[in-house]
């Protein structure tokens, strides 16, 4: 057992000495040998400034005058779709609604009474034409002889009188129905204002800015809250027409956020169909990865191909895990044709996304490196 342990120790010491001198076998290090890759050179591209914005963003404004009684969150608080964000004082509207509800009940009772009166006229035509008369035989004589005789001699036209009473009762029904309809419309109008007294989240998102505080009196059109869905971010940039005409929705490009050294991939999402006649630019929106953590409003640069430069120019790219240091300098193990890993000094360039690193000097296109 001691001889085996001593043998393992000698192998480890040999590997350490080889690594220190710059030559070590790939089998001894037991690492994965991978080829270097190439990426389009940023020197053949033009950076265009833009800003990070939410794909969904809305400014909630006051729809009616009133006093703010509640704001249900602060900047950065998350709300689901349909949640109440802000509420105005509703006491006056509630009182007005109770008043209109009373008018509705009165109109409904008037409509019922008018319909009963019209049904009476239609079902019992003689009762509406009776006039006060005597009792017993005098009243019977009046109904059987006096009224018919007056109709025969042209004194009265009972058909026209009955038609007038039917028309009058129908008019009362119509007026009562219109009054009830007006009360219903007034209730719907008040309910609409009650809905406008509350600011509702139109989608899942967060409050990014408050433009008013509790107790403030606001007027219609006054900004209240800025609400955004920060889970879906994009870069909005004004691209010169010369560069924008070659872009297509779905194209993948590189971008840098907030003047950092880290590059990330972006996707062309929307190209506006109209150019600015003054600036001669076209607004283009680029989708950012959902895993990227940044704030809306941050400065961003998108790298677009330069039509006046050879776009075939590339740079060498390796994983960051393939880079180590010796004496504070970056080095990479490069495997030659004899399967021996040689330590090579390199000069590093920009960092890319997904743990990749640009190597400006020290590697060739077809080199194999130890990851």
Description:
The protein has 371 residues and is α+β, with helices and mostly antiparallel strands. Helix content is 31%, strand content 36%. It contains 6 helices and 22 strands. Strands 1, 2, 17, 18, 19 and 22 form a 6-stranded antiparallel beta sheet that branches. A 6-stranded antiparallel beta barrel has the order 4-11-14-13-12-15. It has a 4-stranded antiparallel beta sheet with strand order 3-16-21-20, with no helix packed on it. The radius of gyration is 43 Å and the shape is elongated. It starts with a helix and ends with a strand. Residues 1-26 have low confidence and may be disordered.
Radius of gyration: 43 Å
Largest sheet: 6 strands, antiparallel
Mean pLDDT: 79
Instruction: Look at the helices and sheets and give the structural class.
Output: alpha+beta
- Terminal CA distance reads 33 Å
Oligomeric state of this protein: single chain
Q: Please, how many helices?
A: 6
Strand content: 35-45%
- What's the helix-strand series? HEHEEEEEEHHHEEEEHEEEEEEEEEEE
Brief description of this entry?
This protein is α+β, with helices and mostly antiparallel strands and 371 residues long. It contains 6 helices and 22 strands.
Search tags:
22 strands, elongated, 6-stranded antiparallel sheet, alpha+beta, 36% strand, disordered N terminus
List the helices and strands and how they pair.
Layout: H1 2-21, E1 23-25, H2 26-29, E2 33-35, E3 37-40, E4 45-61, E5 66-71, E6 78-79, E7 84-88, H3 91-123, H4 137-152, H5 158-196, E8 198-200, E9 205-210, E10 217-218, E11 223-240, H6 241-244, E12 252-257, E13 263-271, E14 281-287, E15 299-305, E16 314-319, E17 324-326, E18 329-335, E19 340-345, E20 347-351, E21 356-361, E22 368-370
Antiparallel strand pairs: 1-19, 2-22, 3-16, 4-11, 4-15, 5-7, 5-10, 6-9, 7-8, 9-11, 11-14, 12-13, 12-15, 13-14, 16-21, 17-18, 18-19, 18-22, 20-21
């Amino acid at each position: 057992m001691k001889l085996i342990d001593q043998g393992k120790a000698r192998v480890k010491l040999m590997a350490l000495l080889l690594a220190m001198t710059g030559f070590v076998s790939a089998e001894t290090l037991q690492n994965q040998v991978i080829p270097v890759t190439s990426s389009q050179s940023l020197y053949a591209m033009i950076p265009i400034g833009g800003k990070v914005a939410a794909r969904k963003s809305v400014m909630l404004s006051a729809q009616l005058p009133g006093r703010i009684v509640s704001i249900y969150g602060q900047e950065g608080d998350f709300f689901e779709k349909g949640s109440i964000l802000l509420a105005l004082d509703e006491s006056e509207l509630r009182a007005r609604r109770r008043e209109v509800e009373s008018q509705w009940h009165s109109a409904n009772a008037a409509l019922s009474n008018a319909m009963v009166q019209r049904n009476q006229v239609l079902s019992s035509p003689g009762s509406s034409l009776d006039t006060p008369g005597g009792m017993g035989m005098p009243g019977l004589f009046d109904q059987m002889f006096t009224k018919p005789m007056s109709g025969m001699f042209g004194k009265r036209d009972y058909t026209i009188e009955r038609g007038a009473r039917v028309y009058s009762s129908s008019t009362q029904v119509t007026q009562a129905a219109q009054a009830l309809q007006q009360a219903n419309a007034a209730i719907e109008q008040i309910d609409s204002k009650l809905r406008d007294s509350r600011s509702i989240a139109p989608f899942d998102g967060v409050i990014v800015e408050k433009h008013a505080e509790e107790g403030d009196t606001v007027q219609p059109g006054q900004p209240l809250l800025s609400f955004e869905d920060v889970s879906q971010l994009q870069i909005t940039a004004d691209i010169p027409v010369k560069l924008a005409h070659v872009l297509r929705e779905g194209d993948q490009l590189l971008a840098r956020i907030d003047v950092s050294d880290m590059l990330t991939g972006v996707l062309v999402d929307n190209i506006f169909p109209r150019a600015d006649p003054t600036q001669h630019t076209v607004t283009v929106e680029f989708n950012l990865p959902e895993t990227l953590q940044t704030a809306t409003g941050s400065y961003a640069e998108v790298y677009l191909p330069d039509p006046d430069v050879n776009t075939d120019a590339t740079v060498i790219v390796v994983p960051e895990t393939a880079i180590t240091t010796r004496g504070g300098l970056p080095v990479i193990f490069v495997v030659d044709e004899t399967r021996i890993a040689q330590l090579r000094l390199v000069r590093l360039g920009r960092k890319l996304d997904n743990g990749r690193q640009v190597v400006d000097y020290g590697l060739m296109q077809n080199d194999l490196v130890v990851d």
